[in-house]
From TrEMBL:
SMART domains attached to this UniProt entry: AAA
Keywords: ATP-binding, Nucleotide-binding, Transport
CDD domains: ABC_Mj1267_LivG_branched (cd03219)
Annotated source species: Puniceibacterium sediminis
Name of the protein this chain belongs to: Branched-chain amino acid transport system ATP-binding protein
Amino acid sequence: MLKVNGLCKYFGGIKAVDGCTFNVDRGSITALIGPNGAGKTTAFNCISRTAAPTKGEVWLDGERIDHLRPHKITQRGLSRTFQISRNLADMTVLENVICQSKIGGWRDLMKPAMSTQEIDKAMGILDFLGITRIAYEDGSNLSYGQKKLMDLAALLMSDPKIILLDEPAGGVNPTLLEEIVGHIRKLNDQGMTVLIVEHNMDLIMRLSHRIVVMAQGKVIAEGEPAEIREDPLVLDAYLGGVLEDAA
Ligand SMILES: Nc1ncnc2c1ncn2[C@@H]1O[C@H](COP(=O)(O)OP(=O)(O)OP(=O)(O)O)[C@@H](O)[C@H]1O
Ligand SMILES: [Mg+2]
């Protein structure tokens, strides 16, 4: 469904993504893992076109999308969350969910800020995620975990076919983590394709069908969770990261 081919993103001399190639199968939960600085978020930025790739191709359902503007990519069914939760100041959760999901480009300027239809849809999504009780809370009063759920809700507003989740459970408590895992599974059971970045290996091993491992901007391994767990290159890349963190 998604093909990333020879993707590169350079920042001056830094090769954040350096010839990255991988596929995401339709209906799968595919994980993109790797140590800090491996280039996972930058790859997400290039795929969703939040950043322009330096080189390489991204294909969605047989169409090349790396030259499209971000809202055009969302219109084609690909949406992503951000590693750092965004939230618009002085807005309720409901307003945040609706406003962050505007994908009509300049045409949105001509429409009312929130239509009844959009409110119904957003409330349905908040209900799916079990957070209708915070619909009218100010977005800036939310706990970190609630923000993660709000991000997920905003993502679903555009009716995506494939979602890219950048650390959707990063830093949340174990109960909420299980809740988020449950939501991702439920979405996948309904046919949603998922590409997920996470550092929580237990979560990744339980949730994903396929794992792509990046280090220093490159894909260093790919396979099913059981294979990846045993891969010496992967163990090495992670062990390196752990030692660096300790230092
Ligand atoms: N805008 C930027 N300008 C310069 N360098 C950048 C920029 N964005 C990312 N980088 C660098 O690119 C590399 C990859 O960063 P990226 O954030 O993609 O890694 P990551 O795999 O998402 O890491 P983490 O697991 O910590 O989120 C890092 O060396 C980072 O410092
Ligand atoms: Mg990142």
